[in-house]
């Protein structure tokens, strides 16, 4: 039996779990900012991915938006780790000869380091703006680890998918996985105002869209397999 078909979260198929996680993460980031605007006196009003007027985590420093922020991200962190596990299983199905070291590396990055660092990162967001400097430094450190882990996971997975199937879609996916690296290089090489927050929002958006695209591909792969089995 096709192993991809049997992978589920309860009654939710693996591909739908990945799609749902990606959509909820986008709702988490942009929804937290919207609640911050609606519930805060004199909020910073803009479209953050373009202007970088505020960071993603800024909403976690206010009571109402912070409650929404934490109530979504803390359960979504292990769900994101589970999504990474499903992607690894999909990669193994596409490329059964993938080296075991690559599988173990992807598992460590996506299923262990990523969710743990994300939980630790957002645990510091308690709806208050005043924190000791070491709390802020820990938040930045673990946020960096989470972002970097996710980027490395996606680059490795994209390259392995491209090696297995040299299609236009996987070429696009591999290029898409490199966009965060290009954005970070732009951040390091330029001195544009608010560049750090602009890069943060755009890197976040790109890595989540990558997950959604893989989820859609998994769904299509499953449908194609079902059609092939019928014939």
From TrEMBL:
The chain crosses the membrane at residues 12-38, 67-88, 100-120, 140-162, 169-192, 198-216. Keywords: Membrane, Transmembrane, Transmembrane helix. It comes from Bathymodiolus thermophilus thioautotrophic gill symbiont. This is DUF998 domain-containing protein. Signal peptide: none annotated.
């Amino acid at each position: 039996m096709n192993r991809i078909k049997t992978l589920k979260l309860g009654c939710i198929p693996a591909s739908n779990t990945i799609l749902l996680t990606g959509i909820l993460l986008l709702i988490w980031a942009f929804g937290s900012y919207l609640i911050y605007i609606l519930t805060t006196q004199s909020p910073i009003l803009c479209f953050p991915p373009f202007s970088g007027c505020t960071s993603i985590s800024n909403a976690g420093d206010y009571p109402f938006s912070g409650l929404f922020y934490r109530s979504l991200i803390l359960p979504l962190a292990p769900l994101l780790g589970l999504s990474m596990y499903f992607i690894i299983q999909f990669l193994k199905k596409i490329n059964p000869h993938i080296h075991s070291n690559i599988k173990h590396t992807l598992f460590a990055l996506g299923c262990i380091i990523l969710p743990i660092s994300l939980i630790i990162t957002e645990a510091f967001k308690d709806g208050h703006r005043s924190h000791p400097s070491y709390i802020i430094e820990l938040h930045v450190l673990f946020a960096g680890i989470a972002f970097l882990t996710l980027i490395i996971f996606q680059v490795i997975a994209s390259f392995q998918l491209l090696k297995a199937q040299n299609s236009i879609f996987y070429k696009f996916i591999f290029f898409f996985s490199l966009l965060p690296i290009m954005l970070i290089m732009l951040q390091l090489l330029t001195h544009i105002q608010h560049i750090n927050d602009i890069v943060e929002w755009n890197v976040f958006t790109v890595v989540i869209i990558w997950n959604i695209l893989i989820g859609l591909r998994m769904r299509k792969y499953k449908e194609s397999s079902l059609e092939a089995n019928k014939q």
